[in-house]
Amino acid sequence: MRSQFTVTWGEPATYRFDLDEVQPMPHELARTWLDDQFNFFGCDPIRPTGKVLTADKILCVAQAAGEERFRDMAHRAWAMAFARAASAALGKPAVTVDVKAQALAY
Q: What is the number of structural domains in the chain?
């Protein structure tokens, strides 16, 4: 099964990460990595209850990191770590993060 992760702000700002040849990130490590990034970027819960779902965390971190972090080769290691962590945390082989629409697709 193909494993691919996509982050988009709409065409032409779409970035794809092929995870087929990449070592999977363990689930708990992925959740911790996303938590750390959520805190690093100063993200706030988007739900009035204050509860932060994994999908919300992924959307918030992608938005806070900004398109440049996915586009620029200087940040390629971070972008690949984000793709690995989000894919592992969701447990899905194909994920699309649409930052503009604030939506995830599996």
A: 1
Average pLDDT estimate for 22-48 = 93
pTM score, whole prediction? 0.93
Closest CA to 42 of 69, 68, 67, 61: 61
> In this structure, what DSSP letter does residue 18 have?
E
Rounded to 5°, the CA angle 63-80-85 comes to: 75
Q: How far is CA 89 from the centre of its chain?
A: 10
**Mean pLDDT, to the nearest integer, of 6-30?**
93
Buried b (16+ CB within 10 A) or exposed e, 15-51: bebebeeeeebeeeebbebbbebbeeeebeeeeeeee
What is the domain extent for residue 47? 4-105
Q: Which residues pair with 6 in a beta bridge?
A: 16, 96
Counting residues of the chain whose pLDDT is more than 70, the rounded percentage is 98
Answer yes or no: is pLDDT of 106 > 70. Answer: yes
What is the DSSP code (8-state) at residue 38? Answer: H
